[in-house]
Amino acid sequence: MTAFKTYRTLHGLAVGIALAAATTAATTAKAEDLLVQDYQTDAAAVGALMQPIQPFLGGAQGSTTSIIQLGSANNAAVNIAGNGSLALIQQAGDNNRAIQSIEGSSSALLLAQGGRNNSVVQAAKGNNDFQLVGVSGSDNQVAYVQVGDNLAGALDVRDSTNSTVLAFQTPQSGSYMMPTGLRGLDNKVVVVVPGRMYVLPKR
């Protein structure tokens, strides 16, 4: 499957799930179950995370992919269509799965994952995009999709259990996105869309 087809599949899936989850949350959750809040857009905080990888980005030729897996039965896949991008997956633990897809140039997708039975999908369509995702704990599902140029963000879903986090970032989200309160989730569904973050119990 080509990188573009992979991206379209992942993007459609993530957006569909995010919209469905947001709609369900808004229409069926009890008032006390649903938390709607803004998220941080601190350029300095994200910029500090991006600084160490700058030497790997840009240029007219080639991209860099690095995959490190420890433990048993880990799975990882990377697709890059463009130049000067970086895809990095570091996994440890049992049965963790990861997919990264970049369609564009000078973008970076970084994942550090531990624990067991976690699944992560990262996708970026655009130039100069950046994602940093950290996941640990067990039985979590995370999807982060960016559509647009010059977007950057980080998701910290470490120490979580049986939770789902879906983040969709566009220029309407702001150039920088760092949702807080995602670490230590327990049986939660979190949907991050431009301007808002929804949190509800996982049923």
Describe this structure in words.
By secondary structure, the protein is of the alpha/beta class. Helix content is 17%, strand content 43%. The chain has two helices and 14 strands. It has an eight-stranded mixed sheet with strand order 1-14-13-11-9-7-5-3, with helices on one face. It has a six-stranded parallel sheet with strand order 2-4-6-8-10-12, covered by helices on one side. The N and C termini lie far apart (34 Å). Residues 1-7 and 17-37 have low confidence and may be disordered. This is Curlin. Residues 1-20 form the signal peptide. Keywords: Signal. It comes from Rhizobium halophytocola.
Secondary-structure blueprint:
Blueprint: H1 3-28, E1 35-37, H2 43-50, E2 64-69, E3 75-81, E4 86-91, E5 97-103, E6 108-113, E7 119-125, E8 130-138, E9 141-147, E10 152-161, E11 164-169, E12 176-177, E13 188-193, E14 196-201
Parallel strand pairs: 2-4, 3-5, 4-6, 5-7, 6-8, 7-9, 8-10, 9-11, 10-12, 11-13
Antiparallel strand pairs: 1-14, 13-14
Strand residues, percent:
35-45%
State mean pLDDT (0 to 100 scale): 81
By DSSP, the count of extended strands is: 14
Level of helix content? 10-25%
Helix/strand-derived category reads alpha/beta
- Shape annotation: globular
Poorly predicted spans: 1-7, 17-37
Please state how the strands of the largest beta sheet are arranged side by side. 1-14-13-11-9-7-5-3
Protein name: Curlin
Signal peptide: 1-20
Keywords: Signal
Give a brief description.
By secondary structure, the protein is α/β, with parallel strands linked by helices. The chain is built from two helices and 14 strands, in the order H-E-H-E-E-E-E-E-E-E-E-E-E-E-E-E.
